[in-house]
Structures are given as structure tokens and as C-alpha cells.
Amino acid sequence: MDVQSPAQPEPKASPSDEQLVRDAQRGRMHAFEELVARHRDKVYARAFSFIRNEEEAVELAQEAWIKAWQRLHQFQGESNFLTWITRIVINLCLDELRRQKRRRTESLDQMAEESGGIEKWMPVVFPNPSERLERQELRRRIDQAMAQLSIEHRTVLILHEYEGLEYKAIAQMVGCSLGTVMSRLFYARRRLASLLADLHPPPSA
User: Fold this and answer.
1) Among 1.20.1260.10, 2.40.50.140, 1.10.1740.10, 3.90.930.60, what is the CATH number of 17-103?
2) Any idea which fold 108-199 has?
3) Rounded distance, CA 173 to CA 161, Å?
4) Which of 144, 118, 151 is CA-nearest to residue 198?
5) What angle do CA 66, 24, 41 make, to 5 degrees?
6) What is the C-alpha to C-alpha distance for residues 184 and 189, in angstroms, rounded to an integer?
7) Which residues are CB-neighbours of 19 under 8 A, at least 6 positions away?
């Protein structure tokens, strides 16, 4: 007589971010801890893309999670949770960059370079390196190039290209005019293209 083994229960599906947020809003800390575990690497990566310093990026990411917990009751679901927490860490990074700028004494030459004076004479190139380099090497080169941009140029580039914000939203976030955002983005793109120009070899004769 064959004895059938008992049916194994199906694995329980992981709760969605939306469900975890609702549970966390009810005071269930374990739900918020799950959100942190899911998204902490992304939040840290965004902080590092602005700050370019591992220790400071860790501190800002931690501060973002603290603020997220404190403000969780304000989250109404207009966007997904990752977008919401990303905006929090971006604002913290912008505040930190403004503090750093106030503390930093710049020479006239540095100010001219950051305003795009040198870049006016650089050729406009549009590299397409993704077909020629492995993803890890490409990311390393892009990170190096981004680190060479000024704070102002790097900020608008990240907000527009990575976060998908429109010019008006960027202007409100960084506290400058629409024209300034457009100008900084133009120079940031051209500077980045120049720094990565060697990834796009000239066509063979």
C-alpha cells in the first residue's frame, strides 16, 4: 500500500513595498526593517553618486532612513516607496553639498572652470562606450568622470539623467533659475562626453 507524502505548502509570496509601508505605518518595525533591507544599497548608491565619499554617503543614507521612518505617516503612495526615499536622500545630499560649498574657498580660476569657461572650447563628442567595454569597467570610468565634474554640474546631471526630473523640478530642488539648470546641464553633458571621449575611437580611414 502506497503512502502518499503530505503536500508541501507553497512558499509564501514576499509582501510588496506597498504592503510593507502600510504595516510600518501601523507601527510594525519589522516591516520597515524589510524595506531597509530591500533598498539600502540603492539609497547608498544614490548618496555616493552625489557626495563621492563612502563614509559621508553611509551617514547620509542612514539619516535618510531615519527621516523616512519619522515621516512615514506622510507617505500617501503618490509615487512608489523607492522614489520617495530616494528624494529624501537627494535633498539631504544637496543640503550637505551646499554646506560644503559655503565652507570651501575657491580660487577665481576654479570658479571660472566650474562655470564652464574652459568647456566652451571643448569639442562636442557623443561616445557610445557600452558596446566596447564590460559593464564594470564602464561604470568605473563613468564614476571617475562624474567625480571630475563640479558639484553644480554633477547635481543637475544626476537629477535629470538618473532621476528623470524635469528642468523646473530641478530648479526648485537646487534653488536656481530654469536657465541656470539648462546651462549647467549643457556644460555637464559636454564635459562628461569630453572626459569619456577616448572610449569612442575615431573611425578607421
Assistant:
1) 1.10.1740.10
2) Arc Repressor Mutant, subunit A (1.10.10)
3) 15
4) 144
5) 50
6) 9
7) 31
First to last CA, the chain: 81
pLDDT higher at 12 or 153: 153
pLDDT digits (tens, 9 = 90+) for 124-139: 444 454 454 466 777 7
The whole-angstrom separation of Cα 74 and Cα 68 is: 9
CA distance 169 to 177: 11
pLDDT computed for residue 108 by the predictor:
43
E strand or H helix that includes residue 51: helix 29-51
What angle, rounded to 10 degrees, do the helices at 81-103 and 17-25 form? 70
Residue ranges per structural domain of the chain: 17-103, 108-199
Q: Contact at 8 Å (CB) between 67 and 3?
A: no
The span from the CA of 87 to the CA of 141, in Å, is: 26
Rg of the chain taking only CA atoms, in angstroms? 22
Q: Under DSSP, is residue 21 helix (H, G, I), strand (E, B) or coil?
A: helix
